[in-house]
Model the fold of this input.
Amino acid sequence: MFGYKRVRIFISILCLASLLFTGCATVLPENGEDEPVMTAGQALSTAARKGNVAADQDRQPDGEDAEDPNSPKTGSEKNNKDKKSGDEGPRVMAVSKAVTCEKNIRDEASLYEGIDDAKVLPMYLTVRKGNASDGSDHTWEEINKYSVYDYDEMGVDRYKVEGILQVDESGNGIGSTDFGFNAKVPNVTVQIRGQTSSRSNQKNFKIHVKDGCGECLGLRTMALNKHVADPGRFANKMCYDLLETIPQLMSCRTYFVHLYVKDETASGNGGDFTDYGLFTMTEPINRRYLKTHGLDENGQLYKVSFFEWNQIDVIMEDQDSSRFDRDAFEDYLKIKGDEDVSKLQEVIKKLHTYSIPIDEIISQHFDEENLCYWMAFNILNGNYDVGARNVYLYSPLNSEKFYMLCWDMDGSFKNGFFRNYQDHIGEPWTRGMTKFLGLKLTNRMLKEEKYRMKLTAAVEDLYRNYMDPQTVSDMAQVYSNIALPYVISQPDQENAGIKEPEEYLAFTGHLGDEITENYRNYYDTLVKPWPFFVNAPIANTDAGTLELTWEAAYDCDGEEVHYDYILARDEYLEDVVDSGKGLLLPTVTVPLPSPGTYYLKVRAINASGFSSECFDYISDRDEGDVFGCYRFRVESDRSITVEESVE
Done:
């Protein structure tokens, strides 16, 4: 019974994959036998069944995944996409990809030629106080003191300093062709960048080249990222380097940077340069990026701060109205391109008009290839911090379509770190397809079987042709050898997630395995009910009862879903107050407990035996997050207070 549901899914995938990949791949018979040559769609279905369905015949739903010897394993160099032969399953040779349609966008591959991804660029930055007129009359100490939240509280723009930037592009000393050669006056301004990362002791910096001072590495603005939350310190760069090889998605130019700073804003006129350790430098996404990468520099461009495609008043307010508040709008979406927001507002309205089929909305306003590959890429890299943030929305000026541009991916490749170094509790909904179900756009989209099939085809294409485990493992080995000397030395060691060399290499040595883990997690989410949200409990003091309710869980196959729940006084659910199993409705009434803090876990189980937990989670524990858990408090007057997490 349990294997049947997966078999039916992959039979459906076969039909779509045959259409998507016809003419895109050649599949060779196994072991040199005279078997009929399969279509790419047949190979996709066969390999998927081998890697997932067969394993389920010997396992119970929601058990731990055992290593499957029949799972497809491929290997490739970064720019060599021919698959090696082996006994794991059908051999797939990547050749020409799908024909580019007018609606598709493609990156400028020539931008990445000549970039040595294994090279570290020394950068020397001498900072000085500038002018009050442009906000650069501040000290380096002030720049490193405040977070973006401090600036919001103070109601001022982020402080800047002026600087003389010099870059040793060759590694042999700053030569006459290098940026900043013989510079005597400031050629850049510097300020902090980032959002939650700005709270860290080690800041990220935005460096902007002053007018008339040319370009640095072909850029006018550079984002220097410390990646304190990434134990490897290179996940974001590795993701962008992987994106360079994927035709369906856009990338950014990136470099490893070793930054040295001389502070002339302090007393004593600076003295020597101070070692600030390893950064990665990323090309920012702005109007200049659009032009350089062959897109429409006059189009709409939004940096998503927190946006779930909901009809929020400050987003939907008519831009011509006096009630439109740009600052409030930009709490959700930073306007980085054309100022007109009406096109985006129109799409949001349609998404909330259920009489308009989602097919019609996707066809008119999105590129399904871009959407599916964006999701697939972030599924395979395990990015847990994507969807409602860390993405750009781009739309050409005279087009109705919006496209996703990847951004800030240092939340990727962290499964092993979470497992071994943090005490997370419960099942993270950030795995597989479910990480995108909180967005109105992709929630409606993925309720349609054809889009789930197209997403699966994109996952398969990326897993086999662009980011297979061996490719990622090879890249991680190169990058970890670069980063390790910095991670185990000051100033980076103090803030490193993993401080010991052996542990660091053990972590980075398994990043290729995380691709396979995330691949399997994706298929798991196809057969489970969808996560759901718990509603605020309602106390009936007269009756002495507490009503617990939650949203009904959606099942892609329309299977009957029942619910189990546990109400406890602790997040580990050991001090149980009440519990129940097999509820057919998403509600239960329990005795009103005494004043105190309570934790509610609800699990949805479908008829095939697969389960998921609620979306709710607690993120203010130092030890790690608690997933699938809703926290509330019964006050002394028996009223209910929902305890929000503070990140």
